[in-house]
Every structure is written in structure tokens, then in C-alpha cells.
Here is the input.
Amino acid sequence: MECVFGLVGKDFALVVADSSAVHSILVHKSNEDKVMVLDSHKLMGASGEAGDRAQFTEFIQKNVSLYQFRNGIPLTTAAAANFTRGELATALRKSPYMVNIVLAGYDKETGPSLYFIDYIATLHKVDKAAFGYGAFFSLAMMDRHYRSDMSVEEAVDLVDKCILEIRSRLVVAPPNFVIKIVDKDGARTYAWRETVKETPMSA
Amino acid sequence: MKIDFSGLESSASFCDADSDLCGSFANTPSFQLPDTLDFDGFQKEAIQMVKPAKGTTTLAFIFKEGVIVAADSRASMGGYISSQSVKKIIEINPHMLGTMAGGAADCQFWHRNLGIKCRLHELANKRRISVTGASKLLANILYSYRGMGLSVGTMIAGWDEKGPGLYYVDSEGGRLKGNRFSVGSGSPYAYGVLDSGYRYDMTIEEAAELARRSIYHATFRDGASGGTASVYYVGPDGWKKLSGDDVGELHYKYYPVGPAVVEQEMAEVSGA
Here is the structure.
């Protein structure tokens, strides 16, 4: 029941993911952050098996860091996407990583970009992408309302429409979502959409 | 029944048995397989037998004063209760506790292994390892054994420089940071009582009582949990065992039997 989706706007890209960590019928956590910040201008939203998701995205993040450390310049989004796909492909016939990834980035020369990478190492550069049962609802919503060159407000509005659809139509829909944005100013959390709040920790 | 290499023989027919290139194919050493009709099914069954369904209830939560860790003490093998006095809270070091759910041997061995690694970290770095670090060490080890039949559902609780810490780590490779967790077959029952009674600012006694009650309610409803409810507290000076009560005794405290309303009375029958 995990949902990850993303779309490209005028000069930014958004990645949205649900935030529930589930084991069979139990929800262990409803504020788990599944969109990893790879570096200053890249976001990687991942859904899939628990261990694989965290371990594989951290592995990619550390390798992206290492490249920048060694070479003094950061990887482009396309390079990072192809590296990720390569790792998935190499492991595929031995012990595959069961993770689906939406990778978004902003490069100074080429602007925002979004990549669809699934667990069998398919790679596509796209304008909108979605994984999970939520994809059935969010893809149709995005196909209907998406235009290229949307502003941040319009894009977040579309994301909210998708989240609303997922919440109302998907059985066992995840209650909380995180929205992250990447643009020329970097990759950061844009907002949380919560219906179930964790108990506040301060007295 | 020997493993069947006949599929390789078609390539061997293209070259002499003596040539260097294909000599090894003709004399492939073979090995014994178990005497079953369905080898793949047998393998699956073997893993299922070794992997018990985490029959237990353990819980841990962070609150104002630190971390409370609690667990039951029943070990079950299918329908047979093999022990009512299993120590499911494992002392990794004087400042960190781990809980056991899943395979007892797996949990005990890997927690002890973790304790060794934590001590080595202390000796190498001249300071105690953080809960984050300890849980990551365990999670990475378990991840590398993924798919090989380990069954571990554990929580690592401790107090380090950053204050109280709690992580859930399992044999599928998952690792979650959180404030409240319950693991095992009785965990849904425990979660209910724990979630409704939880407040961040409780005293240690209130928190221990909440933990004890949650374990008791889980043992009441879950057949695979029972024995004694142990409650530990982890504070800035390390862990301390607060109580270990038999859940049978707790039952009479929490669920007292009052005089029941008589529905029907047996009356004397007059005559023959």
C-alpha cells in the first residue's frame, strides 16, 4: 500500500511519498521519511521492502557523495539515475533489490528532471511518475490535470488532488504523506500532509 | 538421491573427456540430496520449521524520564509451551537493552555479538557507542543474512549522549527510529492498551504500570504469550529491572472476579 509519485514543474520537481512503516496488519510508524536527499539538488523517493529501501537508498547516497568528494564536482541527475539503474541491474540476477524509485533533480544547465526506475532496473526519463497501488489513482489525476510549466502552487494543488483521491478510494490508504521539492535553491521538504499525528514528545 | 547433472552432458558430448577444456564436465563431483520427492518444497518447509512465528509480546517506549522496556516470558513450539521463564530482555551493556522476538537462538546470539561489537567500539573510540550506532550495526548484520531464514524482531533501547533512544530492527533488514514499539504475536493487543494510556510526561511508576498492563492484556488474549511480565527502565545511569510479575497473579489484580449474576438456578424437584 505504499505510494510514491512525482512530477516536473516549470523549474522545479516534486516527489511525494506516503510515510507509513507497515508490517502485515500493524502500522509501526506513520511518519517515516521515504524520500532521501541524495545531495544538495537531488531527491530519491523509494518504495519497497523495508530493509532494501533504506539500505539501497543510503548506498546510492553514499556513492553519490563519494563521487563528489573524489572529483570535486557533483553528479548530474542523469548520471545518478543511470548509476542507480546500473546497481539495480547488476544485482538483479543475483539478489535483486525490491525497491521502486522516483529520482528527481535540478541541474543548472538542463533544469529539473524526473526519472522512473523500477525494481527490475527499468529507467525512463519522464514528466510524471508513480509507484504502488496509489499509482492507479495519482497517474490518472496527473494525466488529466498536468501541464508542462506548472507553478509550485499549481503543482502542489495537483499533488493534493492525488492525495485526496488516494485517501478516499484506496482501501487501507496511508494516512500521512511527505512532499519534497527540488529547485535551483536545493532539495528540501516542502510540506507534510498528515491526518494521523504522532503523540507530541515535549510535555 | 544424487544431484542430477544430466543437463550438462549435452555440452560435454562436443569435446573429448580428456581435453583440458571440458574434462571437468565429464567428472563433475556430485553430492547427496535429501530423500524427498519435492526438493524445493522440502527446502521451503525446512526454513518454515526453523522460523517460528514470533510468538511473544515485547514493547518499549520513550517518555520524559527515559525508556521503559517490557516483555513476557513464554516460549512456544507450535501448540506446546516449552518454557514459561525465558529472558526476553537481553542486556547488551549496562546502558543498552535489546528485546527478543522470533527465534530465541538468533536473538541471543546476535545480541551477544552486538554487545561484543559495542565493547570493541568503546575500546577503539574511548567513548560509549550511541543507540543509533548500535542499532545500525545490528541492522547491517541482519541485512547481510537476508533470505537465509534468520528470525529476529528486536528493539534496541538505551540512553546515550543525545538522551533516550529506541530503534526497531528486524531480520528482513528493516530499521525504524521511533518513540513507541511493540513486537510479536501479542503486539496488536499491547499496542491498543499502550497507545490509549500513553502520555509523554509520566512518572517512572506510571510508565512501568502502563507497560505491565499492556503486557498483561496481550498475554490474556494471545496464546503464544504468557509467563511473567518483566519491566525494565533505562535512565541516564543505565538500565534497572523494575519488576517481574506472573501474569496469572496480575490477572486477579486487573480483572477481579466479582459475584456474577445467576442466570438460572437449579431447583429441587419434588416427588419422584
In short: The two ends of chain A are 33 Å apart (CA to CA). The longest strand of chain A covers residues 99-107. Residues 50-71 of chain A form the longest helix (22 residues).
